UniProtKB/TrEMBL annotation, chain A:
Residues 260-275 have a biased composition (Polar residues). GO terms for biological process: tRNA processing. This is Adenosine deaminase, tRNA-specific 3. Residues 207-286 are annotated as: Disordered. The keyword tRNA processing applies. Residues 207-216 have a biased composition (Basic and acidic residues).
From TrEMBL, chain B:
CDD domains: nucleoside_deaminase. It comes from Mortierella hygrophila. This is CMP/dCMP-type deaminase domain-containing protein. InterPro entries: APOBEC/CMP_deaminase_Zn-bd (IPR016192), CMP_dCMP_dom (IPR002125), Cytidine_deaminase-like (IPR016193). Coiled coil: none annotated.
Length: 396, 173
């Protein structure tokens, strides 16, 4: 079970807004409801609030609590006056009560908040896509593989931070990279930035024949295009090689809109291009799949050894990635859960799913294996892999 | 700031989001870096004007040496003038470098990192020191250039939106 980093709105505690409620006799319900609908200002943004809740008095009598209107909408005097005009003052004694301000987005919130006041709740499965066993196995494989690149980084005197970008539809690795801030003296050459640049370079190279006008040159010797050690590996499938050929963007757009079905598509083989999902996208066969053009990193999966810093997190937003999996949370600097939740901020124009501590146990076990069980408290453990950066104030 | 605006216009003329910037080295007053957006040309969504400018600075041996010797004391003498508020990514990049000061034209309420959406420049929790940042310089000009761009269509986007009915508004909020 992967640990999804939920948007702030899904983990926030109960916040309430004051409304007038009154405890009434069940037999007066129709009369009171008619009064509310006819005479009181309608509530704004509280559609998730149930109008009535059942309540039982100390002596066991069943009564109803009814929401009248928002506390800010009317003064108590005006409300009393309106009740008197309708002759309801003996049946309805208003009091202020706090009800949930926001609709619950998760079952946990729903369960916790209903004590304040009952709300409606419809679970939105798009928010928490199910990851099949097969998909999870592929994810764990990729995370293990991204950690494999840290050894090379360390051997070159770099920080052991690596990144890998994968097309989930084909399981093709689009690029891998590691942090090169030490060797280049360019402190912004983080693994994510290098990896995004590598995918872009791949796209440019792949479409050079069609785009002869492109003449972008990195203007300096330390550019990511020249020095950064990146392997744009090809795994298995060939269907993507022609994806740059025609500017037909349907695929990218669909994947963005439809992350769930993408997740459920757990066939990491070329045959997946003939799956029903792709037919839904208007592509009935592999030929159509081939003519689709990638737009930045739209819909790709990103595998990271460490939680990215704010810069890299936002770079992933700009790149329109679909999902991010990382192993080590960076408490002081992380932009995808620790310090900020840049992947799900309401004002940003693109959101993606984030899973943390993916493969964490495996890395911890590896450290223990290398240093003995007491390594956690010893200095020698701190220089290895996972522990090298955890708890440090480093931007990854 | 005027040079930055010219760079923004240049970006607009080649179909890029029209943002331009210059970096000034305070001890000499010289412009040591210029940049304009290059995300479409590079097929890389992170190639914002600021990154182009930073790369230009580090491509010059003199400044690359200063950066390599003591990165933070070099960058604290560098001031950025940019037509639109740096986005969250650039705001964080500038903080990690240790930029001396940022002046920008118009705020960016969609992904501004220097006050509009996030406060990356003043955040006390994040690593590295906060930096001063002020907006509002040639704001009107920056906005008009941006609007000129957005009444057009982004042909690089998947399924470009048709914007037949958009007209350029001249009045400013």
């Amino acid at each position: 079970m992967l640990d999804q980093v939920l948007p702030e709105a899904e983990v926030r505690a109960l916040e309430t807004v004051d409304v007038y409620i009154a405890t009434i006799e069940p037999k007066h319900t129709n009369q009171v409801i008619k009064f509310i609908r006819g005479k009181l200002p309608a509530t704004q943004g509280l559609d998730h609030i149930k109008q009535i809740r059942k309540t039982t008095t100390d002596d066991g009598a069943v009564k109803l609590d009814v929401v009248l209107c928002e506390g800010l909408a009317l003064s108590a005097q005006v409300l009393d006056q309106l009740l008197k005009q309708e002759g309801l003052e003996s049946m309805v004694t208003p009091r202020i009560h706090g009800v949930p301000k926001y609709p619950p987005l998760t079952r946990d919130q729903f369960e916790q908040w209903k004590a304040a006041w009952p709300t409606t709740f419809r679970e939105d499965t798009n928010r928490h896509p199910k990851i099949s066993d097969k998909d999870e196995a592929a994810i764990m494989g990729h995370i293990q593989s991204v950690w494999g690149h840290t050894a090379e980084a360390t051997s070159k005197g770099e920080l052991p931070i690596a990144a890998m970008i994968v097309d989930p539809l084909t399981q093709q690795i689009m690029a891998t990279s590691y942090d090169t801030r030490k060797s280049t003296g360019y402190i912004l050459q983080h693994a994510v930035m290098n990896c995004v640049a590598a995918v872009a370079k791949r796209e440019r190279d792949g479409s050079l024949s069609q785009r002869a006008e492109y003449h972008h040159q990195q203007p300096h010797s330390i550019g990511s295009d020249t020095v950064v050690p990146i392997s744009s590996e090809k795994q298995g499938a060939e269907p993507v090689t022609g994806r740059e050929s025609t500017p037909s963007p349907i695929c990218g757009e669909k994947r963005k809109k439809n992350p769930v079905s993408e997740t459920n598509l757990s066939t990491p083989s070329p045959e997946s291009s003939a799956s029903p999902l792709l037919r839904d996208e208007g592509a009935g066969d592999t030929e159509d799949r081939r003519v689709k053009k990638a737009y930045l990193c739209t819909g790709y999966d990103v595998f990271l050894t460490h939680e990215p810093c704010v810069m890299c997190s936002m770079a992933l937003v700009h790149s329109r990635v679909g999902r991010v999996f990382y192993t080590v949370p960076m408490a002081a600097s992380g932009g995808l859960g620790s310090q900020h939740k840049i992947h799900s901020h309401p004002s940003l124009n693109h959101h993606f799913f984030v899973y943390r501590q993916v493969g964490y146990q495996a890395q911890q076990d590896k450290v223990k294996e290398q240093c003995g069980d007491d390594s956690m408290n010893e200095n020698k453990g701190a220089s290895i892999g996972l522990l090298a950066l955890e708890n440090q104030k480093v931007d990854c | 700031m005027k040079v930055a605006l010219e760079l923004a216009l240049e970006a607009h003329s080649v179909g890029e989001v029209p943002v331009g910037c210059v970096f000034v080295y305070e001890p000499t007053g010289a412009i040591i870096g210029r940049g304009r957006n290059k995300t479409n040309e590079s097929l890389n969504g992170t190639r914002h004007a600021e990154f182009e400018g930073i790369d230009m600075i580090l491509a010059q041996e003199e400044y690359f040496a200063k950066n390599k010797q003591d990165s933070r004391s070099f960058w604290k003498d560098v001031v950025l003038y940019v037509t639109i508020e740096p986005c969250v990514m650039c705001a964080s990049a500038l903080r990690q470098l240790g930029i001396g000061h940022v002046y920008f034209g118009a705020g960016n309420d969609r992904f501004g990192g220097n006050g509009s959406v996030f406060n990356i420049h003043t955040d006390t929790e994040l690593p590295h020191s906060p930096y001063p940042s002020e907006g509002g310089y040639y704001r009107g000009e920056a906005i008009i250039i941006l609007r000129k761009f957005y009444v057009g269509e982004n042909t690089h986007a998947p399924e470009p939106k048709k914007k037949k009915h958009r007209v350029l508004k001249e009045e400013l909020p």
